[in-house]
Design brief:
Layout: H1 2-12, H2 17-26, H3 45-55, H4 61-68, H5 73-107, H6 109-119, H7 125-131, H8 137-144
Helix pairs in contact: 1-3, 3-5, 4-5, 5-6, 5-7
Length: 148
Amino acid sequence: MEYVSKIKQDLAVYIDREKAEFFPRFFNAYPGGYGEGDQFLGIKVPDQRKVAKKYYRNISLEGVQILLRSPIHEYRLTANIAEILLNHEHDLIHKAVGWMLREVGKKDFETEFEFLKMHYKQMPRTMLRYAIEKFEPELRQQFLKGLV
């Protein structure tokens, strides 16, 4: 888990002992509290974002899961940030593919329609929404409800 180690090393640069003492009180990390059992390094969120942005494309799902299971709050949050960044990047791709399908439909509606009938139930929702954006409202609703 090379990237897990790199993330931990990069985060270590931002450790703030004063914040590490404050965060358990802030997050109610006492028995019965909201953050019971959490451990803190005292790293601010903007610094966690910097590290997540550096590694989110390279860390494996297994690596993210290791960080998410950590008792250290900042490791879990950095993994969450990395996951959000990756999903956001995929969302941009989904929009682009949906847009291209819509453009195909402008030239040849039947081709787009037949393709969507075969694949729309497996398509990411964002991709489908972009692809059917110009459809008649009733047909658009049938696709969104899975009734085509």
